[in-house]
Q: What sequence folds into this?
């Protein structure tokens, strides 16, 4: 009996030693201690290694689907290859080398399917979300706009876009009036980022007549695009949407009873429009911006909605950048508790436009975050463009009038400078003079760029004596980019009088007695007038010479001042 007990103790010790050895080997194979590259290639892969390799294939396939636009047939084929590979790697007894090789083969197979008539540039040409969804009703003419942007790094050229029409009223809600209705864009420029892409967007549109028998609903409108990028021909399909109201509201495009099962979709918030108060926004002014947004879902409400408005960043220097618009309250966020299905919400915020903005539209990004009953922290982004105007500013230099008083029939030379002190170009600048005492033509100066100067040189002729005020009004008119005319007035001191020769005074003047009628004769009145006229001519010539010299001197001084300003 004692001998049996000793044998049992020996067997127990051997079993304990073997168990420790197995535990150590298992610890050495654990993936927590080594990467797949350090595991023995001739050993069968553990479940942990299989999960890791299957995860790599999953990330690879997910990236392919995000980068490329796949057809339904191609997606089904790739899904089949992916699912078979994932199942085989999970269940088959494979060594590490076999597992890696099988994963690489599956990736190559997916890439081969992908390369069949697939262009990587398809994701570059896409629709901008700045144009809201169009609404129309039966029998009316509507205008459908595609706002296209290029997110690629090279230009897209020779873009031909054709609507994909159909006789089926559930697929194409418009009357077909012509067989081919293609339109072309010569170029859509490449962009550095999303903001640059929106600034370079190109719009193209079609007029369509809505069918009389159209059904009520939201229709997808498909367009086919062909274009060249980097010398290669590419094609893609573009889809936009339109809300159509039919003659019979009960006849809808999608009937609830025909749906086999209720599908839950995520709600979307879109920007349907905006307005500013005042309507025209000038740089440096404060304005109230109201943006209208709509919950497009017909069933799901959105809650805890937070809007954050971000203006375009101006300035080239990284240390001197600033936002084009700044909220006067200091906060650019707007909150609302709830937006019901199909409801429109108007959010308002008071903003100030920077005073040094150029005259052009500026993009305002509307970032939206919201929750639903099923999901939280959902987000959408939209953009609006706010046109900024620069107020035209004009000033004049001191007027130089030679002479400052003239008689009726004489001329005076008027010279002064016109300065464009604003940040926008002045178009069709011209100068006229308003007075009952002088007459002149129109002095045309043309366009004056920001910071530039033009000189006025006019000759005014006296036509009637004034009443003693001696004021002539110079009127400067100019136009903005829209052709709206603005008037600027400047008063000039110019006295016009009428020269009167008193014959009675001539008779009262003492005359020397006539000693000899043959040798000394009295100078007739006509001779006196001739001498006076000759003196006036001499005076006008002298004044003209002095005026020309002063004009040349004035022009030289203006040029010197401009040179100093440039320095």
A:
């Amino acid at each position: 009996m004692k001998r049996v007990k000793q044998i049992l103790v020996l067997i127990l010790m051997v079993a304990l030693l073997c168990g420790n050895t197995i535990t150590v080997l298992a610890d050495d194979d654990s993936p927590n201690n080594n990467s797949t590259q350090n595991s023995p290639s001739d050993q069968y892969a553990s479940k942990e290694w299989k999960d890791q390799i299957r995860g790599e294939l999953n990330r690879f396939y997910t990236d392919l689907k995000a980068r490329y636009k796949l057809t339904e047939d191609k997606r089904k084929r790739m899904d089949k290859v992916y699912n078979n590979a994932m199942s085989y790697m999970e269940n088959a007894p494979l060594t590490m080398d076999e597992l890696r090789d099988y994963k690489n083969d599956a990736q190559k197979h997916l890439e081969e399917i992908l390369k069949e008539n697939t262009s990587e540039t398809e994701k570059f040409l896409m629709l901008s979300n700045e144009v809201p969804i169009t609404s129309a009703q039966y029998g009316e003419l509507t205008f459908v706009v595609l706002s296209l942007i290029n997110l690629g790094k090279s230009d897209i050229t020779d873009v031909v876009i054709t609507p994909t029409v159909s006789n089926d009223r559930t697929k194409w809600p418009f009357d077909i009036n012509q067989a081919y209705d293609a339109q072309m864009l010569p170029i859509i420029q490449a962009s550095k980022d999303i903001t640059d892409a929106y600034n370079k967007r190109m719009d193209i549109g079609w007029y369509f007549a809505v069918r009389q028998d159209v059904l009520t609903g939201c229709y997808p409108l498909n367009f086919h695009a062909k274009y060249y990028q980097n010398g290669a021909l590419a094609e893609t399909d573009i889809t936009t949407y339109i809300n159509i109201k039919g003659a019979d509201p009960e006849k809808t495009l999608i009937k609830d009873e025909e749906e086999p099962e209720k599908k839950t979709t995520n709600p979307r918030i879109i920007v349907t429009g905006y307005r500013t108060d005042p309507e025209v926004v000038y740089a440096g002014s404060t304005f109230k911006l109201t943006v209208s947004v709509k919950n497009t879902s017909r069933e799901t409400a959105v809650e805890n909605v937070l809007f954050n408005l971000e203006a375009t960043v101006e300035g080239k220097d990284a240390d001197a950048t600033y936002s084009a618009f700044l909220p006067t309250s200091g906060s650019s966020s707007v909150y609302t508790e709830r937006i019901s299905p199909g409801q429109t919400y108007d959010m308002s915020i008071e903003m100030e436009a920077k005073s040094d903005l150029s005259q052009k539209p500026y993009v305002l990004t509307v970032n939206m975050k919201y929750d639903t009953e099923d999901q939280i922290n959902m987000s959408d982004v939209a953009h609006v463009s706010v046109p900024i105007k620069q107020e035209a500013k004009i000033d004049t230099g001191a007027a130089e009038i030679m002479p400052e008083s003239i008689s009726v029939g004489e001329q005076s030379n008027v010279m002064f400078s016109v300065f464009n002190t604003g940040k926008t170009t002045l178009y069709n600048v011209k100068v006229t003079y308003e007075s009952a005492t002088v007459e002149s033509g129109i002095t045309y100066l043309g366009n004056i760029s920001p910071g530039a100067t033009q000189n006025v040189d006019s000759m005014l002729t006296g036509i009637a004596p004034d009443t003693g005020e001696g004021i002539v009004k110079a009127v400067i008119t100019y136009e903005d980019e829209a052709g709206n005319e603005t008037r600027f007035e400047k008063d000039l001191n110019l006295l016009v009088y009428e020269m009167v020769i008193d014959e009675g005074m001539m008779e009262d003047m003492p005359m020397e007695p006539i000693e000899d009628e043959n040798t000394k004769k009295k100078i007739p009145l006509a001779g006196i007038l001739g001498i006076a006229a000759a003196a006036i001519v001499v005076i006008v010539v002298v004044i003209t010479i002095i005026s020309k010299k002063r004009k040349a001197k004035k022009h030289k001084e203006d040029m010197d001042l401009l040179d100093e300003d440039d320095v």
